[in-house]
Amino acid sequence: MNTESRIWTAALVVVGDEILSGRTQDKNIAQVATWLGVQGIRLREVRVVPDDMDAIIEAVNTLRARNDYLFTTGGIGPTHDDITVDAVAAALGVAVVIHPKARAILESYYATRGGLNDARLRMARVPDGADLIENRVSGAPGIRVGNVFLMAGVPGITAQMLDGLTGQLEGGLPLLSTTIGCWVAESEIADLLRETEKAFEGVQIGSYPFFREGKTGANFVIRSVSDEQLGACASVLEQGLSSLGRAPVAGGI
Description:
With 253 residues, the chain is of the alpha/beta class. Helix content is 36%, strand content 26%. The strands form 3 sheets. It has a 6-stranded mixed sheet with strand order 2-1-3-8-7-6, with helices on both faces. Strands 10-11-9-12 form a 4-stranded antiparallel sheet, covered by helices on one side. Strands 4-5 form a two-stranded antiparallel sheet. Helix 3 (53-65) packs across helix 4 (84-92). The longest helix has 17 residues, at 227-243. It starts with 7 loop residues before the first strand and ends with a strand. The mean pLDDT is 93.
């Protein structure tokens, strides 16, 4: 299959009791999804799991098997409840080892920050056979092992790790999008949306209704890897809305 026409997929496991409790609001899903889209990879599914070995192992083995790539965020810090490395190693059936390059990075980073103690050294632990993902913020690197990528839970650090991976993963064409808005009830144009999407192979139309200013409206996001298909589909949808007496708004409302 042509690399550009193939759809490459990824999944994300968000690890952390604090996410499930609501104490922390996750910001990584959006930035990972956006970054993957630029790489030509679709984020197909996300699972949020607690700081629990069995839960992480099950999620990792399930999602890595049915996607090209699996990302995890959270649980790779210096504390006792940071168990993602151990869980991923168990899922892959390998031991946990101290990565010599990770240790050297941490020794350098903490040389003027109190030195490398046992807790900080935990951040050099990786599943055996893993490579490192650069982190220019806090020293502690991310981890790549097979098709699994372990990243920090702190969004700013995750962003740096994603930057370090840019251009390194095989993917297809980036997913492009355009938005059309309209003051119309979603139910009134369900047939138009379905027929328009069906007419353009490989194009998806997402409908996002809202209620503002005492009126019902919706934004329609059209997605495709083909700029030509994207434009043609948008034009047909705009014409369809106009024929129903509804004024389309390019760019959305």
